[in-house]
Amino acid sequence: MKRLSFISILLLSACQAAQTTAIADPAIQRGFEAYQQYCVSCHGAGLAGGQAPSLADDNWEYGGTDADILKIINEGIEDVGMPEFAALTEQEKQDLLVYIRSGGTLKTTMPIDDVPSVADQVQIEDWATGLNAPWGVHFVGHDMALVTEKSGKFWQVSSKARMEITGIPVSVDKGQGGLMDVATDPDYANNSWVYLSFTHADETSKNLMTKVVRGKVVAQGDGLVWTQEQTLFQAKPEHYISTGRHFGSRITFDDNGHLYFGIGDRGKKDMAQDISKPNGKIHRIMRDGSIPKDNPFVDNLEAYASIFTYGNRNPQGTIVHPDTQVVWETEHGPKGGDELNSIKSGVNYGWPEISYGRNYNGTVLTPHTALPGMAQPISQWTPSIAVCGLDVYTGDLFPNWKGRLMAGSLRNQSVRLIEVDGENYLGEAVLIKDQGRVRDVTTGWDGAIYVALPNKIVRISPKP
Ligand code: HEC
């Protein structure tokens, strides 16, 4: 049995205060609410299991008939820590049964403001100042990071100085687009490959799409230049779109040679469901840009073979967890319904058919938060916190936080420290708040946490 950690304990009360969202079937909805109140603390969000077993895996230790489950609710299971809930109304017991039978399609809505804070345990100091909207921060060595600015400039930054890297591709700083993420190859020490994602214009200069390249940064004279560029992903010309909205995109790698990146729906929501279009998707390619043979849509001649998942609105956080290889993703909802997803091959994440959000003007976008064949988020934030930047804490300065996700937020101006176990969400805490809009967060070479704010990068370390 997994021991409750610090954050989980803090979160038990927060979870119970979680908001809920209406779904089509009122009995499932009521069952979900009862489950949130009485069962979630042990059996986990979405029935997925926690300290007590999953109730969604169809693996029943004590018999899985309706009568068996009602008996357990009424009598508990002696000596193993399953309490009795005889005092619930018959209606509540029936609703719980309906919810358990639904397989937990409706997951927890996480509280936004009612979240414990660990901000008093940390100190924040400036690490690099005078930057203009840093978008991606990636450490390459001792006190040394590669940093993109949305405006299109690319820097090698240390706490003492910074040097521009010239010769990178021209990007278009429009709306949410610009020069976006930077990452280095998992074998960077040997091959020096650096990866960039950016907003690329077609020949007309009017139409835009996310493009991914790699290249090498070399010293030349007194400066640093970008060389040996290779295009890894570029959309078909007819799929470039003029809006300045929803470009994605983070770059992350798993241990099997794959590179993942996301492209937002580009403000054309219905295209997120169309696998002949590149937008509203998470893509998976090899590090040299070739297509993995086991990508889910390689046999569909209409589809982009690089598509790994679809129905993703605007993913601005993607990270492979080094301990579990789970691909975590955060994506912006519309008004509400920002999501934390576990990304799996071929899965439809539902945008815009299902969402916990609404249109920006408050009108109903879709009546559905869940539909068959579409994955539920692992958790979601309503109202939106505007999620941007996602990493896993891998340092030694905060030993208790190792393996936690760190999610940045633009609108809520916070970094959330999220405790996960495999694919389960266990809870979250606010690491910093109200320091400015957060575009990226990462573990530094020294085990401190580095956060990209509107015009600087700050270093977060334990309070002495
Ligand atoms: C304090 C923790 C806790 C709470 C709260 C709790 N359970 Fe349990 N539950 C357990 C444990 C522990 C087990 C059995 C573990 C074992 O024997 O392997 C269990 C077992 C069960 C089983 C049997 C699973 C099987 O494999 O046959 C069901 C059904 C169940 N719980 C339903 C519920 C429902 C419904 C609620 C809310 C009304 C609930 N539990 C609340 C701890 C809890």
Please give a structural write-up:
The N terminus is likely disordered. This protein has 2 domains: 105 residues, Cytochrome Bc1 Complex, Chain D, domain 2 (Orthogonal Bundle); 344 residues, 6 Propeller (Neuraminidase), CATH 2.120.10.30. The protein has an 8-stranded mixed beta sheet with strand order 3-4-5-6-10-9-8-7, with no helix packed on it. Strands 1-18-17-16-15 form a 5-stranded mixed beta sheet, with no helix packed on it. Helix content is 12%, strand content 33%. Strand 11 and strand 12 form a beta hairpin. The chain has 464 residues and is mostly beta strands. The structure holds heme C. Heme C binds next to helix 3 and helix 4.
Overall SS class: mainly beta
Q: Overall 3D geometry?
A: globular
Ends apart, CA distance between termini: 34 Å
Task: Write the CATH fold name of the largest domain.
Answer: Neuraminidase
Strand content: 25-35%
Small-molecule binders: heme C
Biggest sheet strand line-up: 3-4-5-6-10-9-8-7
**Total of DSSP H or I helical runs spanning 4+ residues:** 6
- Helix % is 10-25%
Major sheet size, sense and barrel closure? 8 strands, mixed
Radius of gyration: 23 Å
The counted number of beta strands is 25
How many domains, in number, for the residues?
Answer: 2
Highest-level CATH class of the largest domain = Mainly Beta
What integer is the average pLDDT? 90
Return the CATH architecture of the largest domain: 6 Propeller
Q: Poorly predicted ranges (pLDDT <50, ≥5 residues)?
A: 1-24
CATH superfamily of the largest domain: TolB, C-terminal domain
